[in-house]
Design a protein that fits this description.
alpha/beta, TIM Barrel, binds iron/sulfur cluster
């Protein structure tokens, strides 16, 4: 699954449609006199490794890299004190949504690097948390990414399902890179797809997603999933003043195709501006949002105001968190950070995002400014 092509004075290898390995052509030709191609792609230091969709540097995280999978918001595993474990195998998205709460896509102004995790490492670490949580765990694959861009997504889903504590495997997706064959292959392991569709009008969809958007393909895959064993939840984001008229159309569409066999058919989300996310001109109060959802509930006879209970989510003890807010630590910077001005350090088996301009490899002293939900942020002192 390696494509090979030239771009300007660079030689490019595209591995599994996601990992771009680039060399200067003259450097590559020199190396080729001494080593076989596969060896060069894997081991030569002169290479640049990029995320094919975002063109940002891509770091491959394996157990040998000694980067823990707990502690970062963008990759790895997140435990928020329930029976749901968020599984984030990759960063980077192929869309550029105008409402993106994490400023993803090629148009991102804040994101500097992407990360991809070795599937065996991710499964091994997930197993430890799932065993701690006990029975009826939901593995929810999501992230600051389109998870189906992960080249090992099928292996990951099958692997998660095999772990005995896992009851449900669910995934968040924009639906643009899923094929019917994939759905067939995942039929026994994947339980629910949360598919974000925020417009059924082609022109508006392109405006909202900020790229050339394959609306027909997404609609067809939604129908295909709904007709399979896998459940489908359609999750539009309501953008006041932009897609108000689309929401009733999306409700009708979800009901028509048979979304929501076991879980709710729709999870309408309110647009919220998060720090670091993209900002829209118009907002909406929670009161207006829920009152409109209740109106639509009556009109369409479908549940739209949801709670964690609708998904079988309940409180469970949190996986131990060894780092506390206010502590001061000194650590070596292990990796460049996700956004500009951030670096990644490792403390007590957790990753900590540190705000500093020091280079990877150097030491930094920092105070922990956030330690919520096992996600750690530090500031250089
Ligand atoms: S699909 Fe999700 S992650 Fe990707 S740009 Fe849109 S909102 Fe952001």
């Amino acid at each position: 699954m390696i494509l090979e092509y030239d771009v300007g004075d660079e030689k490019v290898f595209l591995i599994r449609r996601l990992i771009e390995v680039r060399f200067r052509k003259d450097t590559y030709e020199k190396l080729l006199k001494k080593y076989p191609k596969e060896y060069i792609i894997q081991f030569a230091e002169e290479k640049k490794v990029l995320h094919h969709a975002t063109k940002r540097s891509l770091f491959y995280i394996t157990s040998e890299s000694q980067i823990p999978l707990l502690g970062h918001a963008a990759f790895g595993l997140i435990d928020r004190g329930t029976n749901l474990i968020q599984v984030r195998p990759i960063t980077g998205c192929n869309l550029n949504c105008i409402f993106c709460s994490v400023d993803e896509g090629r148009g991102s102004r804040t994101k500097k690097n992407d990360y991809i995790i070795d599937p065996d490492y991710l499964l091994e670490e997930y197993r430890k948390i799932a065993e701690f949580k006990g029975r009826r765990v939901e593995a929810h694959i999501d992230g600051q990414a389109e998870p189906f861009l992960y080249p090992y997504i099928e292996k990951l889903i099958h692997g998660l399902k095999k772990i005995k504590e896992t009851e449900t495997v669910s995934i968040q997706t924009n639906g643009t890179v899923i094929s019917e064959d994939m759905i067939d292959r995942l039929d026994r392991s994947l339980d629910r797809v949360n598919l974000s569709i925020s417009a059924l009008d082609g022109e508006l969809a392109e405006k909202i997603y900020g790229v050339r958007y394959p609306l027909n393909k997404v609609v067809e895959i939604a129908e295909y999933i709904a007709s399979s064993r896998i459940d489908l939840l359609i999750a539009p984001v309501w953008l006041p003043g932009i897609n108000d008229e689309e929401i009733p159309r999306i409700i009708e569409f979800a009901l028509e195709i048979g979304a929501g066999k076991r879980w709710p058919a729709l999870g309408i989300q309110k647009y919220i501006h998060y720090r670091g996310g993209r900002k829209l001109r118009h907002g909406m109060s929670f009161r207006s949002f829920y009152s409109k959802l209740r109106e639509w509930e009556d009109e369409y006879g479908v549940r739209l105001v949801l709670s964690p209970k609708d998904f079988g989510i309940e409180k469970r003890p949190r996986y131990p968190s060894p780092i506390k807010k206010g502590e001061v630590h000194f650590a070596r910077i292990a990796l460049d950070g996700r956004s500009y001005g951030e670096r990644i350090a490792v403390v007590k088996g957790r990753t900590v995002t540190v705000l500093t301009s020091r280079k990877p490899g150097s030491g930094v002293r920092f105070v922990i400014t956030r330690a919520k939900d096992g996600i750690y942020l530090g500031e250089e002192v």
